[in-house]
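TASK: fixed-backbone design
INPUT:
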């Protein structure tokens, strides 16, 4: 893996702001920054949080070595005093937010970063780049999983995006409900199920389709999946069953009218005695294509381009805004932008979801001073949505690694079931539940 510092995965102005703030004394002011989105992608009913665990992974390495510091010095990005401040820098603040796999809506306080202005401002670009992309992929994956019903979806998008984005996308896809990935680095890093057998070139390099099938079966066993649309699908299926026997694990179709072909292949396999052979389809699928395939005899899906591009919404438009800061008198003071169409809500936030008859009916964002929030008592049917990821620089390691991804995967399914059924509609509409902002 490329050796790099996450502390340089940032915009230059974060370091120039740090430099100026250190000079004027505001760098040490205690602050609260919040990540939220003003709106969901057009017509979407909900979003799925993903990437929080990756932020914790990045913060473990969020420091600058001598080469990085020389770069900042040589480019005259910051002055000598700031270089000295950065020499032993480690983020020492507190991070709270929605858990991975949780649903979010406009104005949901998805992540809260608390610490000094100097340390919090350095995290902006890294936090946004992770949450915006990972949540976009997880949100698209969730819609695809709903459309696929009980049929597993697998990530095959690595060749359709940046090589590092492919790894992030594989992780986010599993948070969003997918079952595995073709990306081996993602499988290694996060303990994900790896899938894959052979491409068309494997058939083409052999003298005949039968030779290719025999080679694959000898190498991978009868439970492998054979790609049957290189030449003639009907002939390929016949050859596959003749070579592997009725115990053939699966066939994959990657072109044509997938619903019609799947029906014909299913009937052919059954007629040949291969009644347990599974059918996988691929070929630029999105949630709408999956919905159209619901009545087809398909057992699983491989999804690429539309997954890693968020199925038309490759970002969640999340922003990272200062909502509270320490004043000259030492007390914490709510702050907010008043910019046209970009006004923010002052003060740190609490977040809850209310329920009626076991179904969510509202998102409640409560904003106010530290004292007023400490005294706030939510209603009995409100569920607290915020969890602690890091406490004064110490990360909650249970929110990192494979087990955290599994829990996020399971939580997404549960949280989606708790939303009104309209949340799973693919038609354009308003957010599944309204968000109410309570100012204390």
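OUTPUT:
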């Amino acid at each position: 893996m490329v050796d790099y510092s996450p502390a340089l995965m940032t915009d230059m102005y974060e370091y120039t702001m740090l430099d100026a703030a250190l000079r004027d004394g505001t760098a040490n002011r205690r602050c609260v920054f919040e990540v939220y989105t003003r709106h969901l992608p057009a017509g979407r009913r909900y979003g799925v949080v993903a990437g929080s665990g990756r932020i914790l992974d990045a913060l473990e390495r969020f420091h600058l070595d001598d080469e990085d510091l020389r770069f900042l010095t040589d480019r005259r990005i910051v002055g000598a005093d700031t270089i000295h401040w950065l020499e032993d820098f480690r983020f020492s603040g507190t991070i709270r937010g929605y858990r991975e796999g949780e649903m979010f809506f406009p104005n949901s306080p998805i992540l809260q970063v608390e610490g000094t202005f100097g340390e919090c401002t350095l995290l902006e670009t890294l936090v946004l780049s992770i949450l915006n992309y990972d949540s976009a992929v997880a949100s698209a994956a969730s819609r695809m999983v709903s459309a696929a019903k009980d049929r597993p979806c697998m990530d095959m998008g690595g060749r359709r995006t940046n090589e590092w984005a492919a790894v992030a996308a594989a992780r986010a896809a599993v948070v969003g409900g997918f079952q595995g990935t073709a990306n081996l680095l993602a499988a290694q890093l996060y303990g994900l199920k790896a899938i894959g057998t052979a491409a068309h070139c494997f058939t083409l390099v052999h003298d005949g389709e039968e030779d290719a099938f025999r080679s694959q079966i000898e190498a991978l066993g009868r439970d492998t999946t054979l790609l049957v649309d290189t030449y003639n699908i009907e002939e390929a299926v016949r050859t596959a069953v003749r070579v592997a026997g009725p115990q053939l694990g699966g066939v994959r179709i990657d072109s044509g009218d997938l619903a019609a072909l799947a029906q014909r292949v299913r009937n052919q396999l059954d007629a040949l005695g291969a009644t347990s052979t599974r059918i996988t389809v691929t070929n630029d699928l999105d949630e709408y294509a999956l919905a159209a395939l619901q009545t087809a005899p398909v057992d699983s899906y491989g999804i690429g381009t539309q997954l890693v591009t968020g199925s038309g919404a490759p970002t969640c438009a999340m922003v990272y805004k200062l909502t509270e800061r320490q004043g000259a008198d030492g007390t914490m003071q709510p702050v907010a932008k008043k910019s046209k169409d970009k006004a923010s809500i002052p003060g740190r936030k609490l977040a809850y979801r209310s329920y009626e008859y076991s179904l969510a009916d509202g998102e409640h964002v409560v904003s106010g001073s530290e004292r007023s929030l400490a005294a706030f008592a939510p209603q009995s049917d409100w569920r607290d949505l915020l969890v602690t990821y890091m406490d004064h620089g110490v990360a909650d390691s249970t929110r990192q690694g494979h087990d955290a991804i599994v829990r996020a995967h399971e939580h997404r399914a549960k949280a989606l079931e708790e939303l009104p059924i309209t949340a799973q509609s693919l038609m354009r509409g308003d957010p599944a539940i309204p968000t109410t902002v309570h100012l204390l």
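COMMENT: The longest strand covers residues 359-368.
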